[in-house]
Design brief:
398 residues, mainly alpha, Serine Threonine Protein Phosphatase 5, Tetratricopeptide repeat
Length: 398
């Protein structure tokens, strides 16, 4: 709220001042203000300006306060001069994996992490820290068997290695062996030090979640947050477990917490759009969905959710436009046909049919048939030979 101050109508007698007094005070004020601003700037730049020997410590501090961008930047700077440092490789790999889950467009971070640890292990194949980091990255890249093999190599000589044990648990979970994953993650937590507890607790929470024990999963991820209360990835997982329990309030709080630490986060806005739609808070859903398309105009998922929300509210013209954008983006970005969101075509066609737009309906339908003619997809969309009701016959797509 802006505070308006009225001017005082009081008048004061002019007093004779000693020449130069005001100028000196003004100069001193400027100097003091400049020094304060410079000091504040230097404090903000401290991590980035740290000597090479201090870069790794600064990077670890940045990770501990959830600043993954700065962690990645500083660790890469450190590795440019210390390429063989296993602790730095491990820190960078973990930061990249955690950052990959924090936003909609960060999957490339897992690819970078895999390239990093693959090269590191090739140079030092028996280094346990590098092998553990490699196992952690492999399971995040959905290579469960390779991750388990790398983790076991570490655990043969160091049974209490927390990151390796956590990676093994996550690998078992990725392979569907949830009971074994729980056993391994419990062991990881029992032997973890304070420095390693975050990874072990997160693995344990995921194990509980995979087994449907969402109450325990939520409690465990809350424990993990005590070790890094600003790590965005954990809030997304906390919200997931809350939704499984039907606790929309806790999920909302978790997503808002993401926006506290990352105000421009698009993924959190999409989740709030989905949650608001589920709760039938349609005005909020539209607001969040529109923000998604504004922040990430090239993300087809945002246009799908916006189009779906318009459709649910009976705004079929805007639904048709948004869903057309969703479909076009997937084609332009060469998304493999089996991975495309079929609803962008189907709901778009339904909106066109409701509006009586036969031309758009037939074009959308034929595009879908042509797209899926030589691909195996789970979804089906078929009209009789005479075409959609009220429209002319549909020509063959082949």
């Amino acid at each position: 709220m802006r505070i308006h101050r009225s001017r005082s109508r009081l008048s004061f007698r002019r007093q004779r001042r000693r020449p130069g007094c005001v100028s000196i005070l003004l100069l001193l004020g400027i100097v003091a203000g400049t020094m304060a601003l410079t000091w504040a700037w230097l404090e903000r730049r401290q991590d980035n300006a740290a000597p090479v020997d201090d870069l790794l410590a600064s990077a670890q501090n940045a990770f501990n306060r959830g600043d993954l961008d700065l962690t990645v930047t500083l660790t890469r700077q450190y590795l440019s001069a210390n390429a063989a440092d296993a602790a730095a490789v491990r820190l960078l790999a973990r930061a990249l994996v955690y950052r990959s889950y924090s936003e909609y467009n960060r999957a490339v971070d897992r690819e970078s992490a895999l390239h990093l640890t693959t090269e590191a292990v090739a140079s030092a194949p028996n280094n346990p820290e590098l092998l553990a980091a490699h196992a952690f990255v492999l399971q995040a890249s959905q290579q469960s068997a390779a991750a388990a093999d790398a983790a076991r190599r570490v655990l043969e000589n160091q049974p209490n290695h927390t990151l390796a044990r956590s990676a093994l648990a996550l690998a078992y979970g990725g392979a569907g062996s949830f009971e074994i994953a729980l056993r391994e993650s419990l062991q990881a937590v029992q032997t973890a030090t304070t420095a390693d507890a975050l990874d072990a607790l997160r693995a344990l929470a995921i194990s509980y979640g995979d087994l449907g024990n969402y109450d325990e999963a939520a409690r465990t991820v809350e424990r993990a947050l005590t070790f890094n209360p600003q790590l965005i990835t954990l809030y997304f997982e906390r919200a997931l477990y809350a939704l499984q329990l039907g606790d929309a309030d806790a999920a909302t709080v978790a997503y808002f917490q993401v926006l506290v630490y990352d105000p421009d986060n698009v993924k959190a806005r999409l989740r709030l759009c989905e949650l608001s739609s589920m709760l039938r808070e349609h005005d909020s859903a539209l607001t969040y969905c529109r923000e998604v398309t504004q922040y990430a105009a090239n993300w087809s998922e945002g246009w799908y959710q916006l189009g779906r929300e318009h459709f649910l509210q009976g705004d079929f013209a805007n639904a048709q436009q948004s869903l057309h954008r969703c479909a076009a983006l997937q084609v332009m970005q060469s998304v493999p046909v089996p991975e495309r969101r079929f609803e962008c075509w189907y709901l778009q066609g339904q909106a066109a049919q409701i509006l009586g737009d036969c031309e758009a309906l037939i074009a959308t339908y034929n595009e879908f048939r042509s797209m899926t003619a030589d691909e195996e997809v789970q979804q089906t969309w078929m009209y009789p030979p005479e075409g959609p009701p009220g429209c002319s016959a549909v020509p063959s797509a082949r």
